[in-house]
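Internal tracking record. Fields below are filled automatically when a chain is submitted to the structure queue. Please do not edit lines marked as system-generated. If the sequence contains nonstandard residues, flag them in the REMARKS field before resubmitting.
Queue: standard
Priority: normal
Entity type: single polypeptide chain
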Amino acid sequence: MIAGFPSRLFRHIQIRCLLVLGVLALIWGGIALQLTQELRATERDALEDTSILANAFEENVIRAIHSIDEVILFVRDSYARDPARFDLLSWARERPFLNEQMLQIALIDPRGMLVQSNFGPITTPVDLGDREHFRVHVNSKQDALFISKPVMGRVSQRYSVQFTRKIIGLDGEFLGVVVISLDPFYLARMYDTLEINHGFAMVVGLDGYVRAGVPPSHLIGKPLANSPLLGLAAKESHGKYRVAAATMTGEPAFVSYRRLADYALIVSVGYDANAAWRHIACTGWSRSWQVSGCRCWW
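SYSTEM-GENERATED OUTPUT FOLLOWS
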């Protein structure tokens, strides 16, 4: 009996170890399953959050554009009624709602020459006849707001997005163009009020050029490359997706977008996926340590 005791003890220990390993395997399997479910839920919630924020961002951008267009229409109508006597500089001084984000309000004549500006009298000729935001109105029969790519202003010497409309005379003749030059970050200013940790917001034209974005990006004024956004927006007016490397940040992100109905623009909001995944990873490590504690108890 004494001679067989070590072998029985060994089998007892062996069986107990197998039971422990089996229990640990079940626990770890359960943890893995739960973490997988939590990961999917986190991704789903993150995409839903970005979708809600993209909707709010779209509404904010549309309100901003409408406000700018109202100013343009008022200036245009006032100038068209009496071009010789309308004084844009005096008019702008009396309007406290004009802010520093509106870098310049200007009038361009039918030849493309700058004739008035809220900066002051035009002392040297400034030819804007080659600018897209002027050329687009010259032969157009449409009366529509045009929103340009960000360009370097020849007067302001700052990058700005040009909001323009053609000036139509009392007899229907082309009298020139009204321009409001806007700081590119004005359109994305609502980002400061959104709780987007490690995220981004962006306004892109259907032509692929980035109009505005926050955090500040070198992409403003440049074409958006290596992004599924334009292709998706061409098919659906709104949607959401996950990308391995967002163009704005270079990091994995959950992104939602909305194509504006009345303007050739797309707004998008993105969350940093790594930030969401780190929470899951920390939870997994915590539970693994708890399992290790169970193993030591055994």
